């Protein structure tokens, strides 16, 4: 690191150039190229994600001090498996990471240092990884050209009023945080102004949510068709295809003299100069990420355009749960083969669908008292069956999942017959009201306790109405014992996932007055 950047420790993790430069074929290159992958995960589920990475990829992860991110190393040929991880929202390849970057006090100097950084970064391998990732995406696009049109139009329809459905990046940090996208000139005027507001004040959730929404629209289906190579590769007519890019800066911490906007703008200017790429906010080929969290600076290149958490759901409801969060909650309960897993308030079915996909040797039962929700969930299940069908061609494999309309306080299930309950309790912000929760929560916990197997049964319950939940739980202490609590962010609302263990106490049988 040159003294001007004032960086004591810097590690370009992907700097070891491939030793044998012999093979031109991408296969050879892929064989020795390694990548440090950064993944954003639902806050609070970093350990869960790290366990999944260890289990499926055999790589150890480092959990960032910046909540909601983990880093791990994989050979580039392992990229397809990386995309199949269930607990990650967005993926990027790390260009370089600075654990203790010293920002100058003066704004101009601090920004100048960031500009100077661009020339010194080890871009070569990460860009190769980006290219390889693109060719993977193209193969996939070819396979599902026909489905793509339909889902894209559906997702456009769904953008409005879907909070969890669209939070591309979980940017709700504890410190003031701003998420911002800027090419060289702030093209998307209002977007940028909005985030400046967030950057200078310590961000309130509502603002961050707006921010995510506007960002999500940008990110939808961006540049998926681009036949771009990172080098200046000639297109058929022999003219050079200039790559389009944008810089997205996430900044958190109160010690910085600049906003995320200014950082993105100046860093972006230097990127443009260095690569001769063209800045484009919405239709970009390369998204360069600049993550600044106090003194931790990570430069990366995005590998996912659209958050992986939308993978199962085609019919969104007003509060569709991110499937990455659904996966994390299920994983907390450690499902064993033949377990019966119930989601008594399934909404659009994110939890049971994720469950049936990842734990096909369990039986998943979902229900909701709202006919509209049941219909949406049924549609999502149908979409999943169709998806499985096209994979296996002729025969569609069924999925061990049933959906029922029922009354949460009066479930048509035998006492003690259920192993695991995983559900997203009504928040009272978006659906239902807090007032109702005071009656609903104790009744729910009691009915869940009744159907759950004494001694071995367990439940993972997500709620934002923590006061009410605690009160209800204290009244049900004879049936439920509280295990760990995971604090999460759900579309800007602070929520908690409670892991409960069923005591050995026998629950009351159903009595006629219910």
UniProtKB/TrEMBL annotation:
GO cellular component, one term: tRNA methyltransferase complex
Keyword flag tRNA processing: yes
Sequence ranges assigned to domain THUMP in this UniProt record: 192-303
Ranges annotated as biased composition (Low complexity): 15-25
Gene Ontology molecular function: RNA binding; tRNA (guanine) methyltransferase activity
Biased composition (Acidic residues): 204-213
Chain intervals for the UniProt region annotation (Disordered): 1-30, 138-236
Primary residence: cytoplasm
GO biological process: tRNA methylation
Record localization: Cytoplasm
Any one Pfam family match given in the protein's UniProt record, by short name: THUMP
Compositional bias annotation for Basic residues: 138-147
Basic and acidic residues bias spans: 166-176
Keyword terms: Cytoplasm, Methyltransferase, RNA-binding, Transferase, tRNA processing
Family membership: Belongs to the methyltransferase superfamily.
Protein name: THUM3 protein
């Amino acid at each position: 690191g040159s003294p001007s950047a004032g960086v004591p420790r810097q590690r370009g993790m992907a700097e070891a150039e491939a030793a044998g430069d012999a093979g031109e074929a991408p296969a050879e290159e892929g064989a020795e190229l390694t990548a440090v992958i950064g993944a954003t995960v639902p806050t609070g589920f970093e350990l869960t994600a790290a366990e999944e990475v260890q289990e499926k990829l055999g790589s150890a992860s480092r959990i960032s001090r910046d909540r909601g991110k983990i880093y791990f190393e994989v050979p580039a040929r392992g990229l397809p498996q990386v995309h199949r991880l269930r607990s990650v929202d967005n993926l990027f390849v790390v260009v370089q990471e600075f654990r203790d970057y010293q920002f100058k006090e003066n704004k101009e100097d601090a920004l100048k240092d960031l500009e100077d950084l661009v020339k010194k970064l080890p871009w070569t391998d990460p860009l190769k990884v980006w290219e390889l990732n693109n060719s993977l995406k193209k193969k996939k696009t070819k396979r599902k050209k026909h489905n793509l049109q339909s889902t894209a139009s559906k997702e456009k329809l769904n953008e409005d009023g879907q909070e969890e459905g669209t939070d591309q990046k979980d940017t709700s940090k504890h410190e003031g945080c701003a998420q911002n996208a800027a090419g060289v000139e702030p093209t998307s005027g209002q977007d940028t102004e909005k985030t400046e507001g967030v950057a200078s004040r310590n961000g309130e959730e509502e603002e961050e949510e707006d921010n995510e929404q506007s960002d999500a629209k940008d990110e939808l289906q961006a540049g998926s068709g681009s036949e771009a190579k990172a080098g200046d590769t000639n297109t058929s007519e022999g003219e050079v295809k200039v790559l389009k890019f944008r810089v997205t800066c996430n900044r958190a911490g109160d010690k910085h003299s600049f906003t995320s906007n200014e950082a993105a703008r100046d860093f972006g200017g230097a990127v443009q100069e260095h690569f001769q790429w063209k800045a484009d906010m919405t239709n970009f080929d390369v998204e360069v990420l600049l993550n600044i969290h106090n003194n931790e600076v990570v430069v990366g290149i995005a590998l996912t355009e659209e958050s992986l958490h939308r993978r199962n759901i085609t019919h969104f409801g007003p509060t569709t749960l991110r499937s990455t969060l659904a996966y994390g909650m299920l994983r907390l309960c450690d499902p064993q083969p033949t377990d019966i897993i119930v989601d008594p308030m399934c909404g659009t079915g994110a939890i049971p669908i994720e469950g049936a996909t990842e734990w096909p040797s369990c039986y998943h039962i979902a229900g909701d008292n709202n006919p509209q929700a049941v219909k949406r969930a049924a549609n999502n299940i149908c979409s999943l069956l169709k998806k499985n069908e096209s994979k296996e061609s002729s025969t569609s494999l069924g999925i061990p999942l049933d959906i029922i309309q029922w009354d949460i306080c009066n479930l048509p299930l035998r006492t003690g017959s259920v192993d695991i309950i995983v559900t997203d309790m009504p928040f009272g912000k978006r659906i239902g009201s807090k007032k109702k929760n005071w009656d609903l929560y104790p009744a729910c916990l009691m009915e869940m306790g009744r159907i759950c197997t004494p001694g071995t049964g367990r439940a993972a319950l997500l709620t934002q109405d923590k006061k009410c939940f605690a009160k209800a739980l204290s009244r049900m202490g004879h049936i439920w014992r509280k295990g760990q609590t995971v604090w999460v962010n759900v579309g800007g609302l602070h929520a908690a996932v409670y892991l409960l263990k069923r005591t050995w106490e026998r629950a009351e049988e159903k009595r006629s007055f219910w």
